[in-house]
Design goal:
- With about 200 residues, the chain is mainly alpha-helical.
- The chain contains ten helices and two strands; from the N terminus they run H-E-E-H-H-H-H-H-H-H-H-H.
- The chain has a two-stranded antiparallel ribbon.
- Helix 2 runs antiparallel to helix 3, helix 5 runs antiparallel to helix 6 and helix 6 packs across helix 7.
- It starts with a helix and ends in an 8-residue tail after the last helix.
């Protein structure tokens, strides 16, 4: 492969990744008006990783973790965003995202495509300290924004505390400190205020 061919493949992937800016998530931005997109989400988590890596349960390679964060939702260009509490969408999420990963990472030169696909698989499997911390941030970031917007999307979607706890059953594996902070400061106040439905009621 010539240098020019390699560059063409790299730019083809980079341009394709621009579509991530059009994939809207259920989470609102902190202004409470606009929906966050996948690119917003990835950037915000990368910043969080840079600033909060000291709270990881285990030492992590920050650059590897940020790399994982930046590429983990690229598959949603094809697969679409699956809302965390959409049972029907979650049932087909894995199949859709695997198919998308096959197509999207194959746009790159083989060595880079394999590297990014390996990072994506690592995130999905959650077996390394880096993957566990990235997955923690993936759950804490939307909780932070839900809190900043008065629990609007939790309230709008009738989200129950049991759903949030199930979704976050592994969040502490990456950072016990961040999960505790998230639960106490972002989640519990909205249970008390009724924005999150308490299953005991």
């Amino acid at each position: 492969m010539s240098d020019n061919e390699r560059l063409e493949q790299q730019f083809r992937f980079i341009l394709e990744a621009d579509k991530e800016k059009s994939i809207l998530r259920q989470t609102l931005l902190s202004n409470g008006k606009e929906h966050e997109n996948d690119a917003d989400h990835a950037w915000h988590m990368a910043l969080m990783c840079l600033l909060l890596s000291e709270y990881a349960n285990e030492p992590i390679d920050v650059l590897r973790t940020i790399s994982m964060i930046l590429i983990h939702d690229v598959v949603e260009i094809d697969a679409g965003d699956t809302y965390a509490y959409d049972a029907q969408g979650c049932a087909t999420q894995r199949e859709r995202e695997l198919k998308a990963a096959d197509r999207l990472y194959s746009l790159l030169p083989p060595d880079q495509g394999e590297k990014l696909r390996t990072l994506w698989d690592e995130f999905e499997e959650g077996r390394t300290p880096e993957a566990r911390f990235a997955r923690t941030l993936d759950n804490v970031q939307p909780a932070m924004l839900n809190n900043a917007t008065g629990g609007a999307m939790w309230r709008r979607n009738g989200v129950r505390l049991s759903q949030i706890l199930s979704r976050n059953k592994n969040t502490a594996e990456g950072s016990a400190a961040l999960w505790q902070y998230s639960f106490e400061h972002f989640i519990q106040p909205h249970v008390r205020e009724g924005n999150i439905r308490d299953d005991a009621e």
